[in-house]
Structure formats: structure tokens, C-alpha cells
Amino acid sequence: MKLIIFDLDGTLLDTLRDLGDSCNAVLQEYGYPIHELAAYKKFVGNGVQKLIERALPEEARSESTISVLLSAFKRQYEQKAVTHTQPYPGIVSLLEQLKSLGYLISVASNKYHEAVIPLMTQYFPDIPFDLILGHRTGRPAKPDPDIVLDTLDALQVAKKDCYYVGDSSVDMDTAKNAGVTAIGVTWGFRDEDELRTHGADHIIHQPEQLLGIL
Question: What is the pTM of this model?
């Protein structure tokens, strides 16, 4: 049986504005410069701690400051996470088709796990995902293959039967590190050149194009 593992932010859900608004609110609260929304396309992708680090001025990136702002960000994001976030056009239909065709589908995200579950419940209540994993405390973040290997083990799927779908270099590197097929999407936060440079086996521009690859 074939398995399709999806990244979340920038792949299934357009979360950029809510992430950016939450981070800007925290930066403003603590007296740091805020950023244009477009800047967050480069800040996100490696987990929320790295997001905070990238958003801070270089001279302010101490471990203690990042820790304080990280806690504040989680409080902000809990309030803002579903304000503007939406599935990308065609995503719900794609997921429904994949399940009807008998594919296994899962999520492997660098977003902390406690934030992933409410978003999945909110936006995909009728999609029976086979596994949903966000970043778990004490486990390595993508591009380490840990989360993909855990998924393969839990669902008893061979690497040759797995496709990893994502929008960034982090996702392509994760797929390569795990030894599975890397599929890059161009509707997310990064561009096609980045996906190709990081070894995408396939590039798709619309969700329904995934079916042609499978």
C-alpha cells in the first residue's frame, strides 16, 4: 500500500498570515522590530524556535530571549491560529480522492505537535488521516528523517512506497534523508528553484497533479 506524507504549513494549509501576525505581536510586545508578511516565508519551515530566532535582530538571539519569546508566541498563536488560515484550493478534494482510492495519508510537520492537532481538527474534520505528527519535544526536527521514519514504522510501509509532499528545501531534504520520493509543491512559501536545488523528484503546481505521479 502506498503512503503519501504531507507537510502542513505551506502545503496543506496557508498559515502564513496567522504565523506572521502572532510573531509580530510578540516582537512588538517585547520592543523588537516587526516584519512584513513576505519575510515570514523565509522564517518558517524549521519549527517555531527557529522562527523566533530568525525574526529577532541578530544581537538579540540569546537562548534566554528566544525561550521567553517562544512561550509568548505559543500564547499568541493559540488565539490567532484559525483567524486567516485556510486549506489551499483543491487540497480537501485531493485528500478525499486519495482516501477513496485506498492510499494511506499522514502529516509530518515541524510545527509543534500541540498546535498541529487543533488545526487538523478544524480544517480537515472529515478526512481520516492515518497518522498526524507534529514536532515532539526531545525529537529532532526536519530535515532530520526521524518523523518520516517513525511514520513508516507506525504504518508498516516500505520506503519505496512512500511519497513526501512539501513546499520547502526542508521538506525535500527530509525526503532525501529518509530515502523516500520527494514531491515539491509551488503554491506554498518557497519557490520552484529552491525545490529543484534540494532534489525534488517531482514538482507540482496544482494539488490534483499529485494523482498523475502516483
Answer: 0.92
